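call fold(seq) -> tokens
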Amino acid sequence: MHIITLLLVGSLVIAQTGMDVKVLKDQFALNSKTFNNVLVNISDKDANRRIAGTNSVKWIAGHTVDTGYNLAAILGVSSENPYAADFGFGKPFDPNADYPSLKKMLADWNALSPKIEAAIGKLTQGQLSADPPFPLPYNEQSIRGLIAFQMHHISYEVGQLGLYRKFLGKEAMSYQ
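ret:
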């Protein structure tokens, strides 16, 4: 009886880990796709425009790529973050900065995204349950919670960029 219970509980833990990983991986893939889609047909000239007192499209896009590099570092994929100086935590928009082009940002994002997705796909229950490197503004204080919060953050940035599409007179972002 105990052996059967252990086998069932062990199977549930494995199934749960697989489900956690699948959901996180799928969410990242969706975020990666929508980040690309939300920037379609936005020129660098338009990306420098701002709604009064807000960050520009370029700054929001750069901050999103910075978030990707931070997630990659947490997952052990990359430790080098070329976006941290301009777009890292607490870095404000600088109207005099010469930010990278959207083309460069998307190229960097698209080179990094498959590595992040693959790293998420390899996470174990132990890794998902490990403590995060810093406190999270999220209920679950674990690597799983950190990844989930990063997904939310990227979605939030994509939402801001979606609003900018309207401001710039562009069509709504496509999910296709």
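Residues 73 and 79 are 5 Å apart (CA to CA).
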